[in-house]
Write a structure and sequence with these properties.
The chain contains seven helices and two strands. With 206 residues, it is mostly helical.
Length: 206
């Protein structure tokens, strides 16, 4: 009986392994952990940066050409949903694994490029901060809701993220796994911008 149970267990394990092998383009455990850890870390960094700041501090601008902290958070919140819709649309299309040879960057390189604040860029019109939220708290809550939902997706998805691709104007062809990393890196880029505002010598003390 023990032998039969062992054989049945091995058979089931083989079926499970085969099932995973039949899902090309899905995330490995290490890739899944990398993404979840990065999404969580960048989420926590922004939340911690905003703790205890007054309305005066949140809305202070170094000059008319610079964003306030509120504007940075609004942009992050708007972008988190706006950019993600391209991933959600692309994953519904056919897998194109042959495009993998077109990829130029690793996730680490994408993060490094996105968080290099020496290179500036203009925000697209749909995600420019134009006071779409009542205040910074409301903008942060919108960001957190979207971010937490994406983290849940990363924990469980069996979508073929690595066999679906999307063109990016700066990064070229990226698979949807790297595109999701790009989204989190974008939030970190503007969290760094928040920290730059706070580091300005003229930033209000309270």
């Amino acid at each position: 009986m023990k032998r039969s149970f062992l054989l049945a267990s091995l058979f089931m394990a083989g079926l499970i392994t085969s099932a995973f092998r039949l899902a090309p383009g899905t995330l490995t455990p290490d890739e899944r952990k990398y993404a979840i850890d990065y999404y969580t870390k960048t989420r926590t960094r922004l939340v911690n940066d905003l703790k205890g700041l007054s309305e005066t501090q949140l809305n202070w601008k170094a000059d008319s050409t610079r964003w306030s902290i509120y504007q940075c958070v609004e942009h992050i919140a708007l972008s988190e949903s706006f950019i993600l819709q391209f991933e959600q649309q692309a994953v519904k299309g056919p897998a194109t694994p042959e495009k993998r040879s077109e990829m130029k960057y690793t996730p680490d390189q994408i993060i490094a490029m996105m968080t290099d604040r020496s290179h500036k860029a203009q925000a697209p019109e749909p995600v420019k901060p134009v006071k779409q939220f009542a205040d910074t708290r409301a903008a942060l809550q919108a960001f957190l809701a979207r971010r937490d939902s994406t983290i849940d997706y990363l924990r469980t998805t069996q979508d073929g993220l690595k066999d679906h691709f999307i063109p990016h104007p700066a990064l070229g062809t990226v698979d949807l796994y790297e595109f999701l990393i790009f989204i989190a890196a974008h939030s970190e880029r503007h969290t760094l911008q928040v920290e730059e505002v706070m580091a300005n010598p003229q930033f209000p003390k309270q």
